[in-house]
Specification:
This protein has a single domain, classed as 3-methyladenine DNA Glycosylase, Chain A, CATH 3.10.300. The protein has four helices and eight strands; from the N terminus they run H-H-E-E-E-E-E-H-H-E-E-E. Strands 1, 2, 3, 4, 5, 6, 7 and 8 form an eight-stranded antiparallel sheet that branches. The longest helix has 8 residues. The chain is globular and about 45 Å long. The two termini are 30 Å apart. It binds a DNA duplex (12 and 12 nucleotides) through strand 3, strand 4, strand 5 and helix 4.
DNA sequence: TGTCCGATTGGT
DNA sequence: CCAATCGGACAG
């Protein structure tokens, strides 16, 4: 069952980022086979006040335009000349909030995932935002895709109790000054598929 | 159009 | 720790 529009249009992006944990990200390939993973790590970005956000200070360009769309839209961009990053847009139109999905635990289409990530250990298949995009076949063609459509979506997964959720600072945003230390990254405690560089945490 | 740099990763 | 690698943002 796909998560409904109201899940995404809520105004508190931190709450949505936390609630995403345990749900299942699904990408059907063109044969109709499903590749899917349970979301185990997320990061909230709250433009325009959040200096770490691409939409900081109201920045609105060809790339960031997606973030201004309706909650429940995919925001996929390309970084470091080689990696894609999959994000979920939240809130209502014109409020550029988004959540970076940093790691999933593979649960469907393992054969396809292993082929795309040949030579890697099991815990390295989808344990990072760039890795999971390779594993699941996500690229910029999915930018602006509606998560209530049929190209990529998130459906009800497993239930995760509040006690299993840990939070800590976001990763790779050293340029964000005072926003660096905000504990806006959420992950499932002890899950083997969370990204490496998981530094200090607090709950 | 030129320069700087990135919401990462894999190898040293 | 560091290089890879190229598109985006912005200055000029």
């Amino acid at each position: 069952m796909k998560l409904p529009r109201e899940f995404y249009t809520r105004s508190d992006v931190l709450e949505v980022a936390r609630d995403l944990l345990g749900n299942k990200l699904v990408v059907p390939n063109r044969n109709g086979a499903r590749v899917a993973g349970i979301i185990v790590e997320t990061e909230a970005y709250r433009g325009p006040e959040d200096k770490a956000s691409h939409a900081y200070n109201g920045r609105r360009t060809r790339r960031t335009e997606t973030m201004y769309g309706l909650g429940g839209t995919a925001y996929v961009y390309f970084v470091y000349g080689m990696y894609h990053q999959f994000n979920v847009v939240t809130n209502v139109e014109d409020v550029p909030h988004a959540i970076l999905v940093r790691a999933v635990e593979p649960v469907e289409g393992l054969d396809i995932i292993r082929r795309r990530r040949r030579g890697r250990f099991e815990h390295e298949l989808t344990s990072g935002p760039g890795r999971l995009c390779v594993a699941m076949g996500i690229d910029r063609k999915l930018d602006k895709a509606d998560l209530l459509g049929d190209r990529v979506w998130i459906e009800e997964g497993v239930s995760v109790s509040r006690r299993q959720i840990v939070r800590g600072p976001r990763i790779g945003i050293d340029y964000a000054e005072e926003w660096v230390k905000k504990a806006w990254r959420f992950w499932i405690r002890d899950n083997p598929c969370v990204s490496r560089r998981s530094g200090r945490s607090f709950d």
